[in-house]
């Protein structure tokens, strides 16, 4: 059947591509080269594609994760929380016990030096709940903030909160709001790349490893100036994908008879 060829463009934005199987790299990059713009969220993905012979380098940019497009504001509440977001997948039972024991020790240490509400964040329904149930048996958690609440009401994060998170996006969003914290990596090859990219954005969070190693570490405040730079970069990239309003209005008026 006859068809009309469109002139639509294809964009890939905020992509994290590493790690992937090197055996498929050539085929994968050939597919990617069919896109008009390819925007990456981490340095490793960007540099990997720069070395490819199948992609035009002028198509490549690195403006950060797409969540920089979210307009977020810190909570106005006065009390401080220790926010926990630990996922229930990837770890074996023995690893889970080690992580739980270290978290319990550190949270109890923090409680000796200040008053904190302990809150567990569910970002992936069901999966995060599993870890919460195991952790709750050893640590009295004051509040379980489920996915529905987070989605509908926001994350309720302030700059005087402290977080321990294995979730990439909570690390990014909480640090954008000025919160200090630690990140965990349940899958080294995958999550180290993701969390390291947030450190590159200016989070200044540290990796949560052994309790004895972190007990005396002074938490670093996120560098909000760097994070603002990435926020502006992402917005500039998003605006570059679409025609400016006068051009759009002209096209609507000329071809569709639509007036704004």
Task: Report on the architecture of this protein.
This protein is an alpha/beta fold and 260 residues long. Helix content is 41%, strand content 14%. The chain contains ten helices and nine strands. Helix 4 links the parallel strand 5 and strand 6. The longest helix has 19 residues.
Give the SSE map.
Layout: E1 11-15, H1 25-32, E2 37-40, H2 43-50, E3 60-62, E4 80-85, H3 93-111, E5 116-121, H4 127-136, E6 143-145, H5 147-153, E7 162-165, H6 168-176, E8 180-183, H7 188-200, E9 206-207, H8 211-214, H9 224-240, H10 245-256
Parallel strand pairs: 1-2, 2-3, 4-5, 4-7, 5-6, 7-8, 8-9
Strand order of the largest sheet: 6-5-4-7-8-9
Instruction: Characterize the main sheet.
Output: 6 strands, parallel
Assess the beta-strand content as a share of residues: 5-15%
- Our measurement of the CA-to-CA distance between the termini, rounded to an integer number of angstroms, reads 36 Å
Report the strand count: 9
> Order of SSEs, N→C?
EHEHEEHEHEHEHEHEHHH
Structural class: alpha/beta
List low-confidence stretches. Answer: none
Radius of gyration: 22 Å
Helix content bin:
40-55%
Overall mean confidence score, pLDDT: 87
Described by the principal axes of the CA atoms, the overall outline is: globular
Number of DSSP helices? Answer: 10
Outline of the structure:
With 260 residues, the chain is of the alpha/beta class. It has helices at residues 25-32, 43-50, 93-111, 127-136, 147-153, 168-176, 188-200, 211-214, 224-240, 245-256; strands at residues 11-15, 37-40, 60-62, 80-85, 116-121, 143-145, 162-165, 180-183, 206-207.
């Amino acid at each position: 059947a006859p068809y009309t060829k469109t002139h639509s463009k294809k964009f890939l934005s905020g992509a994290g591509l590493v790690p992937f199987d090197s055996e498929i790299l050539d085929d994968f990059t050939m597919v990617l080269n069919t896109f008009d713009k390819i925007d990456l969220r981490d340095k490793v993905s960007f540099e990997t594609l720069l070395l490819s012979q199948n992609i035009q380098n002028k198509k490549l940019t690195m403006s950060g994760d797409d969540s920089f497009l979210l307009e977020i504001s810190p909570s106005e509440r006065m009390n401080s929380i220790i926010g926990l977001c630990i996922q229930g997948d990837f770890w074996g039972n023995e690893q889970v016990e080690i992580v739980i024991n270290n978290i319990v020790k550190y949270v109890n240490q923090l409680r000796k030096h200040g008053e904190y509400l302990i809150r567990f964040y569910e970002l992936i329904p069901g999966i995060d709940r599993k870890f919460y149930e195991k952790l709750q048996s050893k640590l009295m958690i004051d509040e379980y903030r489920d996915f529905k609440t987070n989605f509908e009401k926001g994350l309720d994060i302030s700059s005087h909160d402290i977080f321990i998170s294995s979730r990439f996006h909570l690390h990014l969003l909480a640090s954008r709001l000025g919160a200090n914290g630690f990140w965990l990596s349940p899958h080294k090859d995958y999550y180290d790349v993701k969390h390291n990219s947030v450190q590159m954005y200016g989070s200044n969070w540290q990796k949560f490893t052994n309790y004895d190693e972190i007990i005396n570490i002074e938490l670093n405040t996120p560098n909000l100036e760097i994070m603002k730079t990435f926020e502006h970069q992402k917005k500039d990239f998003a605006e570059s994908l679409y025609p400016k309003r006068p051009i759009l209005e002209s096209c609507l008026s000329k071809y569709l008879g639509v007036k704004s």
